[in-house]
């Protein structure tokens, strides 16, 4: 066998480059297998071996001895095992199962006395019950003068029809809310709802439901404008985006991917979540969210946000520490030497522990900021020094090298969260808000038209904003659809915003 050292220098270099490339490809292959077959939770288990290999011991390196890391576990109250009790607010219907009268006599001749009872609870369900609401408006007329005695009033008098969101339609606010919650909160497409209605003898086509959605959306434009203004009224804006397939886009194939953009913001305590459909992922699509906003924008590492912010100097770009951690986590799962990646995770974990501990103390904003900087800055300085050292030692093409390079490139954005108490180290709040759309997408697969995509975005916005403001989305939509026909002024519309609806019966 030919010795590598005997080969020409250019051949040696070529073989080494192939080895580096093979090592990088092997890591990425094992990462794909890990994502395909292993659970997705990003937890580090020291006792779990690598997916398809074990870490080979390095006999040339003296093993390091480090003091065992100690971690204080806060005390906790153990939950009582067993089934959770059924909510007390649910209606109870008693079913008494008694012994026969013949057995209520003792052998001594005395009557048995009731000394107590055993009670167990079971949950019953009645399938969705629908009924027809008949609106009856009596007509009145004068048989004597046939109306000629009072010409200022009509000859035939009848009460005005109740205002309806869709005049002339069979829909009620409750039915509209039911249909939209089924689709956008419970991920049940219109064609499945059509079949569900048929099972109880009601014929509502998917086309009718789609038309209702477009009609409702056209009536809610003033509310959408107010929500978008409210979105920019807070100190922090968080953004994310994901793909969506939209049919019948002008000048585009049906197979091309479009994008659903999400922004979460608003004053503290009154959050709003807004979804908007765009054809592309271009940075120009971000400007509509940023126009009129000043403060902090927190996003992942997509460079389109950085490009968009070049024309918004009054906005500070904040990164997401969870994305950096994810890259180290992925490297720790497939690398044959995962120690370096795990060290990166340990540094990030220390920052999260500080954040959690301080938030639990309910400090004032000024004290919180002071203490967070005091505790986090030394950790961050040590972390950055470690990253710069490892950047010269780890192969750039490896997953660990990629994680280090990403973290260093994003460094100024990753530490910007220290400047305001309204920011956390990551962008998870917006990612959690976009998750319902991603789950729904697996069921309804695509939007039939750009108009349908726009109205779907706003339905998601209403439902998720209601959740963020601790409202039952079904109750909120029902109330909203009842009140919209009477809304005339800006104040009327403002009263219907989720954060203004504190008592659903008050309006």
Describe the structure.
This protein is α/β, with parallel strands linked by helices and 507 residues long. It has a domain at 320-426. It is 42% helix and 7% strand. The protein has a 5-stranded mixed beta sheet. Strands 1-2 form a two-stranded antiparallel sheet. Strand 6 (295-298), helix 7 (303-308) and strand 7 (315-318) form a beta-alpha-beta unit. Helix 4 crosses helix 14 and helix 14 (450-468) crosses helix 15. The longest helix is centred in the N-terminal third of the chain and has 29 residues, at 9-37.
Rg from alpha-carbon coordinates: 32 Å
DSSP helix count?
A: 16
Characterize the main sheet. Answer: 5 strands, mixed
Q: What's the N-to-C terminus distance?
A: 88 Å
Q: Which strand order spans the largest sheet, edge to edge or round the barrel? A: 5-4-3-6-7
Computed structural class: alpha/beta
The tally of beta strands, per DSSP, is 7
Written as H for each helix and E for each strand, in order along the chain, the element string is HEEHHHHEEEHEHEHHHHHHHHH
Spans with pLDDT under 50 lasting ≥5 residues?
48-68
| Beta-strand percent range | 5-15%
Q: Which bin fits the share of residues in helices? A: 40-55%
Averaging pLDDT over every residue, what do you get?
Answer: 84
Shape: extended
């Amino acid at each position: 066998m030919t010795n590598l050292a005997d080969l020409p220098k250019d051949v040696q270099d070529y073989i080494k480059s192939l080895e580096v490339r093979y090592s990088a490809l092997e890591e990425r292959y094992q990462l794909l297998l890990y994502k395909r077959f292993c659970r997705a939770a990003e937890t580090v288990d020291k006792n779990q071996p690598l997916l398809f290999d074990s870490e080979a011991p390095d006999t040339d390196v003296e093993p390091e001895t480090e003091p065992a890391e100690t971690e204080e576990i806060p005390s906790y109250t153990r939950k009582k095992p067993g089934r959770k009790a059924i909510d007390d607010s649910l209606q109870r219907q008693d079913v008494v199962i008694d012994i026969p009268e013949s057995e209520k006599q003792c052998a001594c001749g005395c009557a048995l006395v009731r000394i107590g009872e055993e009670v167990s609870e079971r949950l019953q369900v009645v399938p969705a019950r629908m009924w027809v609401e008949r609106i009856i408006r009596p007509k009145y007329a004068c048989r004597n003068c046939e109306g000629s005695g009072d010409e200022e009033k009509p000859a035939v008098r009848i009460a005005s029809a109740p205002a309806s969101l869709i005049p002339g339609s069979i829909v009620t606010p409750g039915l509209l809310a039911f249909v939209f919650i089924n689709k956008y909160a419970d991920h049940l497409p219109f064609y499945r709802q059509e079949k569900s209605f048929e099972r109880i003898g009601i014929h509502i086509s998917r086309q009718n439901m789609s038309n209702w959605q477009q009609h409702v959306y056209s009536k809610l434009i003033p509310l959408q404008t107010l929500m978008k203004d409210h979105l920019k009224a807070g100190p922090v804006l968080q953004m994310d985006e994901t793909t969506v397939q939209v049919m019948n886009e002008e000048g585009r194939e049906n197979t091309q991917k479009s994008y659903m953009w999400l922004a979460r913001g608003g004053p503290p305590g009154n959050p709003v979540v807004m979804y908007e459909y765009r054809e592309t992922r271009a940075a120009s699509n971000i400007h509509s969210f940023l126009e009129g906003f000043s403060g902090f924008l927190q996003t992942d590492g997509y460079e389109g946000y950085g490009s968009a912010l070049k024309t918004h100097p009054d906005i500070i770009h904040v990164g997401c520490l969870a994305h950096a951690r994810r890259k180290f986590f992925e490297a720790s799962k497939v690398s044959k030497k995962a120690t370096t990646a795990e060290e990166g995770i340990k540094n990030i974990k220390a920052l999260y522990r500080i954040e959690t501990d301080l938030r639990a103390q309910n400090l004032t904003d000024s004290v919180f900021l002071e203490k967070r900087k005091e505790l986090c800055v030394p950790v961050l300085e040590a972390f950055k020094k470690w990253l710069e050292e490892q950047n010269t030692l780890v192969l750039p093409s490896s997953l660990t090298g990629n994680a280090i390079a990403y973290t260093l490139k994003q460094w100024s954005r990753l530490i910007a969260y220290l400047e305001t108490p309204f920011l956390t180290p990551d962008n998870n709040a917006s990612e959690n808000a976009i998750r319902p759309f991603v789950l729904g997408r697996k069921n309804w697969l695509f939007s039939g038209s750009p108009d349908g995509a726009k109205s779907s975005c706003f339905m998601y916005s209403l439902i998720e904003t209601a959740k963020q403001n601790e409202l039952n989305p079904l109750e909120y939509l029902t109330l909203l659809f009842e009140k919209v026909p009477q809304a005339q002024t800006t104040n009327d519309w403002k009263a219907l915003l989720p954060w203004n609806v504190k008592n659903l019966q008050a309006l």
